[in-house]
Amino acid sequence: MSRLILVSNRVSTPKARGDEVSQGGLAVALSAALRETGGIWFGWSGETIETFSGEINRQSADGVTIATVDLEPQDVDEYYNGYANRTLWPLFHYRIDLAEFDLQFGAGYERVNDRFAATVAPLIEPDDIIWVHDYHLIPLGQRLRRKGLRNPMGFFLHIPWPPYRLMTALPFHRRLVESILEYDVIGFQTSEWLDSFRHYLVTEMGLKIDGDILVYRGRRIKLGAYPIGIDGAQLDRMVTTHNAQEAFKTVRRSAPNQKTVIGVDRLDYSKGLIERFQGYRYFLEHYPDWHSKVFLLQIAPPSRGEVHTYEDIRKQLDELSGRINGAFAHVDWVPIRYVNQAYPRDGLTGFYRASDVALVTPLRDGMNLVAKEFVAAQDPEDPGVLILSKFAGAAEAMGRALLVNPHSKEQISKALERALTMPLSERRDRWEALNDVVRKEDVTAWRDTFLADLRQAEDKLFFATPP
Ligand code: GDG
């Protein structure tokens, strides 16, 4: 089988071999695929260097090479903090009000994609297949093609694809979309994001799509939805570890007569944390019987601190959680425990298991793995209840969760009351259905389906040489 070349903005390097605590399911699954065929995982080191040199930091083991490059501070500002996280991220998460359109960002984005292409191209052999990840690197395939590479290339977008009209608000949107059409397989998390992409192709570009195949300039491109998932077996192992059990006991002992509602999110405006806290406050106002009997444990490790909108949301959340606690707390009860630190993955699974309800209420989310991790970590005899935003990609297959509109404090509040009083038989029934989905649509299925399609491109089933 041909070697696999993975390219993503950041590369996951395990601290130790088989270290499950430092590597998430996605990294483990991709590393395993690399080990099967041999290959390279390429990306930014996370380090900066005064002048870009293209010098590669390498680490090789088991036929797999981890290769990274350092970027200039200006690259990081314009490409990573700029175009990726201040333009595409907000726009693709429907926050056009937060999107910044700056020519310098676009120039930096293209420059870094060129730099990535120039650095990785010499490492690629003619028989390799290439899999590029996420919004940071949309034009990479095109840049590799310009260097004469004819390898099968696939692209997977981890975040939503915005509706047609929103996409056209991006200056030079067509240039970005044309670059994506250099791949042979283009994958999205859900059929909703895929439909938005198709809508753009048909309406804006007048293209015809035959089933899931787009014929573009004489080439056949496969378009698909590939829902990402978790590694269920990894989670099962983690939940039985000492750390997980300690974390479980810490939560249970800290409030023996209270129910636990958990939220776990990167501190990001797309995760709907403000709306979640407001929904929880509404619940406390309307169901006073629950005072002293429930608390919300919100774990929210800060991310992207260099982008000012993230500072803003952090301030708002500090204030709102403080105000809610100030208004409702008693000497022996704090309604929100708002924690701004990251926990090790194994401890996190203990928190999930100790919780009665999870509030997963993003305003928009490509998929959302927390929803799946919470379900997989439950005790089958006495499972907790998942409250899930209908705007998370995960909702497409997890219809047995309590689905809510995350903008509606009434719906969040009602769902909380329903979840906290749900009879055991209903909890089990819903959990079994959800757990089936989580175990079936797991990270291995995601990876293997995508790679199978990419290998079909290799066999020229989708991929045809221009006439
Ligand atoms: C993007 C897309 C898509 C969270 N807190 C801690 C911690 N986490 C872990 C969770 C989970 C991961 O981070 C977050 O994944 P999500 O899927 O929820 O969200 P994004 O980070 O926005 O990811 C998303 C995903 O890519 C995959 O395609 O699902 O839609 O936005 O695994 O457990 N991990 C540790 N400590 C924490 O405190 N160790």
UniProtKB/TrEMBL annotation:
InterPro entries: Glyco_trans_20, Trehalose_OtsA. Pathway: Glycan biosynthesis; trehalose biosynthesis. It comes from the Bacteria. GO terms for molecular function: alpha,alpha-trehalose-phosphate synthase (UDP-forming) activity. It catalyses: D-glucose 6-phosphate + UDP-alpha-D-glucose = alpha,alpha-trehalose 6-phosphate + UDP + H(+). Its EC number is 2.4.1.15. It is an enzyme of class 2 (transferase). The keyword Transport does not apply. Keywords: Glycosyltransferase, Transferase. The keyword Transit peptide does not apply. SUPFAM superfamilies: UDP-Glycosyltransferase/glycogen phosphorylase. One of its GO terms (biological process) is trehalose biosynthetic process. Probably involved in the osmoprotection via the biosynthesis of trehalose. Catalyzes the transfer of glucose from UDP-alpha-D-glucose (UDP-Glc) to D-glucose 6-phosphate (Glc-6-P) to form trehalose-6-phosphate. Acts with retention of the anomeric configuration of the UDP-sugar donor. Homotetramer. Belongs to the glycosyltransferase 20 family. This is Trehalose-6-phosphate synthase. It comes from Sphingomonas sabuli. The lineage of its organism: Bacteria, Pseudomonadati, Pseudomonadota, Alphaproteobacteria, Sphingomonadales.
